[in-house]
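USER: Study each token:
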Amino acid sequence: MQRFDRALHQCISLERQRFLDVACATALAAGQLIRDRFHQPHDIHLKGAIDLVTETDLASEALILDRLAKLTPDIPVMAEESSRSLSLRSQPQYWVVDPLDGTTNFAHGVPHIAVSIALLENELPKVGAIYHPLLDELYCASLGGGSWLNEDRVQVTQTPELISALVATGFPYDIEHSLLTVLRHLSRVLPRVRDIRRAGAAALDLAYVACGRLDGFYEINLQPWDTAAGWLLVEEAGGRLSTFDDSPYSPFVPQLLASNNRLHSALVQLLK
């Protein structure tokens, strides 16, 4: 039995079940490649001043693209390392792929990394899978079918007040241009919550909100591949996503606030 069989059985259609199967199996295969390479020397290149890419990012993406081309040849793929893939936003259906979320962690030997794969239809997620290869944790969700961690269904926390909340955030790669904004948000949120974490993998931050390890997460200037799968995971686990002013969330806007829902309005007041 596959670890995601229960999630597959909760899919509301055979088509959605097939897509979730593809997403999960592909994330596991890419995760195996990453796990095998984790302790090896890395070939590191710079995409920006502090934005890295390694040979493993590229190898993982090549594996994912090859599998998706064979299994769903009619569905295009928006992937982090593929040029011009953001133009696919106008398509009615496409995969959104982060072949290695947490590249800086990976390059420095920090074991907090993930593969993220989601299927979007009309810019809304229908299935999503996030795999942490070093903990062997597979998070997955389908629209209407709940959120899952391996074989267990997960839910967001019921934390009712900010002072009891553990919240995560992240810092954008263009930090020199957004430092004052980041510090302003931090200065407003940090004194009001139990603590803040900054672990360096947005897909896992969202997965951790979904499974109750975090009560909330916020960040600016993320990309669709950072958030598409986690978006669905959080909402199917009973949580909520929005922009900082509580407008509807889209992976193509520069703000993300995710929470257990109960804390959402209070976090909006701090961030808007």
